[in-house]
Structures are given as structure tokens and as C-alpha cells.
Design goal:
Order of helices and strands: EEEHEE
Largest sheet: 5 strands, mixed
Strand content: 35-45%
Helix content: under 10%
Strand order of the largest sheet: 3-1-2-4-5
Length: 73
């Protein structure tokens, strides 16, 4: 399930699989609709996933974050 958050109305939005996503220094952002997300100029898609595939990655913990940025182009 995807969740949408607005960091700056009409400008910056985040789409993530993380519920209750907090921005810089733990600040909450208002949850938004997909339509509100699509209306922003810059859109971040943040996917947080667990992984345990490579022993060499154990030092990094068990969470990997991948991010795609779209907009301003």
C-alpha cells in the first residue's frame, strides 16, 4: 500500500510504502491523496524494504532505502 505526503503544497510530495513517514528531524507531514501528490512539481518515491540476501551487507543493517526523484525537468 502506498501513502502520500505533502512537504510543500504544490511543490514537494512524497510517495512511500512507510506509514506515518516523518520528514527532517521527525517532523510530520500531512497525508495526501494520489491526486494531490501528482499536482506537485517535485515528487519523491521512497521505497523501504527489508533484505537479507548478502552477508556483506549485514554491516548496513536489514533495511535498504531506494528513492526516485521526478520533476523540475
Amino acid at each position: 500500500m502506498m501513502h502520500y505526503y505533502i512537504a510543500a503544497k504544490g511543490l514537494l510530495a512524497i510517495k512511500t510504502n512507510a506509514k506515518d513517514f516523518k520528514w527532517s528531524f521527525g517532523h510530520n507531514m500531512p497525508e495526501a491523496s494520489q491526486e494531490e501528490y501528482e499536482q506537485c512539481e517535485v515528487k519523491l518515491h521512497l521505497a523501504i524494504e527489508d533484505f537479507n540476501e548478502d552477508e556483506g551487507l549485514e554491516k548496513l543493517g536489514n533495511t535498504i532505502i531506494s528513492m526516485a526523484i521526478r520533476g523540475l525537468g
